[in-house]
Amino acid sequence: MKLAVIQVSYSKDVNKHIAKKVKKASKKADLVILQELHQSPYFCITEDVKNFDFAQNFENDLKFWSEVAKENSVVLVTSLFEKRAEGLYHNTAFVFEKDGTVAGKYRKMHIPDDPAYYEKFYFTEGDLGFTPIDTSVGRLGVLICWDQWYPEAARLMAMAGAEILIYPTAIGFLDEEPIEEQRSQLQRWLTIQKSHAIANGIPVATANRIGFEPDPSNNFKGITFWGNSFILNAKGETVAQASEDGEEILYAEVTKDETREMRDIWPFFRDRRIEDYADLTKRWRD
Question: Whole-structure pTM over 0.90, yes or no?
């Protein structure tokens, strides 16, 4: 599986800008991954009903990215503001096949509601479960941003036969936070996703935003998205990693052989005590 991860900042002509990046990436990759909500500013930084307008052109957005995938003959992982019905919206990853058809979609399951990440105001929780998407390049375990903190999501995708975990992401620092805390958050973010690769013997690819985006409500200064998009192999080793603030395209090749080798040596799936895990479906053990 030859893949590319595209890391860019938001701009007014972001769709055309990303389309050019996809064209460039297609010369080396069959699978191209874009970041979370890549065609708009990160509007969840504030609660404002006007931001639902970003989903009004949803059908045209599907056509646009379908054509990008088809023109470049790549499997394309996008992250769109899905308008399902009036007053019903999802944060959804649409995966397009090389011919432009929709191979499948994943609706974000874990929705945050934190300072400057007010996603529960906009998005309904996903209802498609943790189901990999079959494509011509392999079976993709697509999840989105806040999902990356949950080992259950990664495990269920792996158990369903995902050959790679993919996380379109929008995460960064609040300028009000101390530098030490910012550095700590970044390391935790990298570490949790490396653990998913190791625990499941599976590659992981994450595409994050970069750049500063101000808070229009002035509750905060804004978010500086911390970039650092990366690709891990099935050992949890970093194959490629982007900078904190530069527009980049990461390339890597991952193989099923490495997953098989890791799972043969470290048989976590063999040794799972599934008969004793029933309490995982509870909110808490009282």
Answer: yes
Tokens of 97: 């096949």
DSSP single-letter state for residue 125? P
pLDDT, one tens digit per residue, over 162-203 is 999 999 999 999 989 999 999 999 999 999 999 999 999 999
Question: Tens digits of per-residue pLDDT, 54-68?
Answer: 999 999 999 999 999
Q: Which two tokens stand for residue 47?
A: 């609660």
Residue 130: other Cβ atoms inside 10 A: 22
SS3 assignment for 162-199: CCEEEEECCCEEECCCCHHHHHHHHHHHHHHHHHHHHH
DSSP 22-86: HHHHTTT-SEEE--TTTTS--GGGS--GGGGGGGTTHHHHHHHHHHHHHHHT-EEE--EEEEEET
Residues with active-site annotation: 36, 108, 145
**Do 132 and 157 meet the contact criterion of CB atoms below 8 Å apart?**
yes
What is the rounded CA–CA span in Å between residue 165 and residue 202?
A: 7
Identify residue 42 by its one-letter amino acid code: Y
Amino acid at 57: N
Structure tokens at 3: 């893949």
* Domains parsed from the chain with CATH numbers: 2-281 (3.60.110.10)
- Of 72, 108, 81, 78, the C-alpha closest to 96 is 78
Other Cβ atoms closer than 10 A to 164: 28
Report whether 235 contacts 191 (CB < 8 A). Answer: no
**What is the spatial distance between Cα 15 and Cα 133, in angstroms, rounded to a whole number?**
24
Q: Where are the beta strands (DSSP E) in 86-137?
A: 88-96, 102-107, 113-114, 117-118, 133-135
Residue type (1 letter), 163: E
